[in-house]
Specification:
The strands form 2 sheets. Strands 3-2-1-4-5 form a 5-stranded mixed sheet, sandwiched between helices. A two-stranded antiparallel ribbon has the order 6-7. The protein is α/β, with parallel strands linked by helices and 416 residues long. The longest helix is centred in the first third of the chain and has 32 residues, at 37-68. It has helices at residues 7-32, 37-68, 79-92, 96-103, 107-117, 137-149, 157-166, 173-180, 259-273, 289-297, 314-327, 336-352, 364-368, and strands at 218-228, 231-240, 246-252, 278-281, 301-304, 390-398, 401-412. Helix 9 runs parallel beside helix 10 (289-297). The chain has 4 domains: 43-73; 76-125; 137-202 and 372-412, no CATH class; 218-368, Nucleotidyltransferase, domain 5 (2-Layer Sandwich), CATH 3.30.420. Helix content is 44%, strand content 14%.
């Protein structure tokens, strides 16, 4: 058995090393209090030499860690650090190769920095750049706060951007996605003065059957089935194509509906909201000849797309997707009357509180009444560094349903 595998030998060697080290420290401490200045200078020199060796060992560990990292994943030196490296290079009279070896970079990188400082290259690598188009920390904080209050899939990045635009802050979906990948900044301080009123935006809507520009020009109608415990219910929705306003959301305790029920639902809706020019449905059994004749007596043209083309009635299909996202976590009652009350509450929230992408951030109720949002403005970090705006984000429930969020964003900013 080799001696270096014996635990007793290794423990004896370790004990001897500890005794020698302690004897050396004791001798050096006695020399520090010696009366001879020569002995004290020797002790100080020995202590400084030891510290230099420890620093060299520490530096070698850090340098080796950077060298082991792939070149494309190494952290870059900041402009201040690059200037300090060049200054150290001149003071130590190092060459580009020696400097590159000590700081684990390529020699051509050092030469590029030298050309930049001599005015023969791009000085951006040595001078810190100001991010003129960077979002203010208050805006970035508000984006993170919205994501925390409304996690996915309840609210996506596009809806977050529209909520910010509705509050008067100019931001895009890409900016929201980029900010959510960053670390959440600290909340800005409160300000007393308010920002003046913003200008109103202007927009033009295209004209077509599927993209109408007028109210009651095109309605969309479809049926969705869902289960509550062991009972199957049907939800019939009627949607205005121009404003995306949910005109009617009716629940039935059956999935086998007939044409007469659908005609009666359209009649009730027309009495409250007016008569549309066109009504788009799919090829369900409820929307066939009898339903078409009933619409004709009301002065409505029945339009059906091709078979297996759900995109033709895609507006109401997309609404059902939003409805199912709310339906899954919600606790539903077991009576038809209570279910209808829940649907009425959802209809009010959908029309008044949920911004729509196709409406440029307006809610369906605002689009129905031709309300124009205030023009959003960019809030950059360089606009007023000493007086940062204060953005307050609040989430409350709509009525008694906690799954229907009501977002309120308040922006306070000192006047320039």
């Amino acid at each position: 058995m080799p001696w270096f595998n014996n635990t007793a030998y290794l423990m004896m060697i370790d004990s001897m090393a500890i005794i020698i080290a302690q004897s050396y420290q004791l001798a050096r401490s006695r020399l520090a209090s010696a009366s001879s200045p020569v002995m004290r200078a020797m002790m100080q020199r020995d202590q400084l030499f030891s510290q230099i060796q420890w620093l060299k060992r520490e530096l070698e560990i850090l340098r080796q860690q950077r060298a082991d990292c792939p070149a494309n994943k190494r952290p870059e030196f900041s402009p201040e650090q690059r200037l300090a490296i060049l200054q150290l290079m001149r003071q130590r009279n190092w060459s580009a190769a020696v400097t590159a070896k000590r700081f684990v970079v390529h020699p051509n990188t050092i030469r590029k920095w030298i050309r930049a400082i001599d005015g023969r290259g791009d000085s951006k690598s040595l001078l810190p750049q100001i991010s003129w188009n960077r979002m203010d920390d208050a805006v970035r904080w508000a984006v993170h706060e919205l994501r925390q209050l409304c996690p996915e899939p309840e609210m996506g990045t596009r809806t977050i951007a529209m909520q910010m635009v509705r509050s008067g802050i100019q931001i895009s979906r890409r900016s929201v996605q980029r900010i959510l990948r960053e670390t959440k900044p600290k909340k800005s301080r409160k300000t007393k003065k308010r920002w003046p009123k913003l200008n109103q935006a202007k927009g033009v809507e295209p004209y077509h059957l599927l993209t109408p520009s007028n109210l009651n020009q095109t309605w969309h109608m479809d049926i969705m089935t869902f289960r509550v415990l062991w009972t199957t219910y049907s939800a019939v929705a009627i949607l205005d194509g121009a404003t995306r306003k949910l005109l009617r959301l009716r629940a039935y305790r059956s999935k086998a509906l007939d044409s007469q029920q659908m005609i009666q639902l359209v009649k009730v809706t027309t009495k409250k909201h007016g008569v549309p020019a066109n009504l788009i449905t799919d090829h369900g059994v409820q929307f066939r000849n009898r339903f078409k004749v009933g619409l004709k007596t009301l002065g409505i043209k029945h339009v059906r797309g091709q078979v297996r083309t759900p995109s033709f009635n895609g507006k109401v299909e997309r609404f059902f997707k939003t409805l199912r996202l709310w339906q899954r976590p919600a606790l539903w009652p077991t009576t038809l009357r209570s279910i209808q009350q829940r649907l009425n509450q959802y209809q009010a929230w959908y029309n008044t509180e949920r911004p729509h992408q196709a409406l440029k951030g307006l809610t369906p109720e605002e689009a129905w009444h031709s309300v124009q949002l205030a023009e959003p403005i960019p809030i950059r970090a360089v606009d007023c560094p000493s007086r940062t705006p204060n953005i307050r984000v609040q989430r409350s429930r709509f009525g008694s349903d906690a799954n229907l969020p009501v977002i309120k964003i308040t922006v306070h900013r000192l006047a320039a």
